[in-house]
């Protein structure tokens, strides 16, 4: 926060009109890349744009907007997250943990990070956006083959994130 990398907007309406919310999120997609990064570059993994809906009690619209716009953000190298009280999306490592269960309803924009890989396997275009961002030196045809192979397996299969039994770990203490 001291670096002025978090930006916040508030929508006080308890039931904002869907068309207004869509306009706000479209604006966020355009404004986010222009926000200062604090380091002089065009990107910063610490930068975030938070849109809070403090009076909203029906979170259906948050989920709808997230679903509708996530691809637009991902293709530009950003992530769009939905948070609200009772959000039941499970954690990646612990299915009992609810990381998106927040105290207030909000939509949050941030830069895509290398650790977002498991969250982008559901759709080939998301995996492709990830590869384009983090492997820009790979030729386009190689990226396409990688995405094709990654998305031809069940979304739950991510070899880099598989939990290995202790005896098969990379531990050097044997």
Structure commentary:
Helix 3 crosses helix 4 (140-151). A four-stranded mixed β-sheet has the order 1-2-4-3. It contains four helices and four strands. It folds into two domains: 1-112, Translation Initiation Factor IF3 (2-Layer Sandwich); 116-161, no CATH class. By secondary structure, it is of the alpha+beta class. Residues 160-174 have low confidence and may be disordered.
Secondary-structure map with pairings?
Elements lengths: L5 E5 L7 H14 L16 E5 L7 H15 L3 E6 L22 E6 L12 H11 L5 H12 L23
Parallel strand pairs: 1-2
Antiparallel strand pairs: 2-4, 3-4
Helix pairs in contact: 1-2, 3-4
Largest sheet: 4 strands, mixed
CATH class of the largest domain: Alpha Beta
Strand percent estimate: 5-15%
Low-confidence stretches: 160-174
User: What is the string of helix and strand elements?
Assistant: EHEHEEHH
Shape: globular
Alpha carbon gyration radius: 18 Å
User: Which second-level CATH architecture of the largest domain applies?
Assistant: 2-Layer Sandwich
Average pLDDT confidence is: 82
Number of helical elements: 4
In spatial order, strands of the major sheet run: 1-2-4-3
Strand segment tally? 4
Span of the ends, CA to CA: 44 Å
Helix-strand makeup class: alpha+beta
CATH topology description of the largest domain: Translation Initiation Factor IF3
Whole-number tally of structural domains: 2
């Amino acid at each position: 926060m001291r670096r002025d990398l978090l930006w916040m907007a508030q929508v006080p309406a308890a039931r904002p009109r869907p068309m207004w919310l869509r306009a706000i999120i479209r604006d966020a997609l355009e404004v986010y890349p222009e926000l200062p990064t604090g380091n002089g570059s065009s990107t910063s993994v610490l930068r975030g744009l938070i849109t809070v809906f403090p009076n909203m009690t029906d979170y259906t619209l948050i989920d709808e907007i997230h679903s509708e716009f996530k691809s637009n953000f991902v293709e530009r190298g950003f992530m769009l997250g939905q948070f609200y009280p009772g959000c039941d999306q499970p954690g990646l490592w612990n299915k009992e943990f609810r990381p998106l269960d927040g105290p207030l309803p909000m939509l949050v924009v941030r830069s895509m990070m290398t650790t977002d890989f498991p969250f982008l396997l559901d759709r080939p275009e998301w995996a492709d956006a990830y590869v384009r961002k983090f492997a820009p030196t790979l030729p386009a045809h190689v990226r396409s083959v990688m995405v094709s192979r990654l998305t031809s397996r069940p979304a739950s299969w991510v070899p880099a994130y598989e939990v290995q039994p202790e005896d098969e770990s990379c531990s050097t203490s044997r």
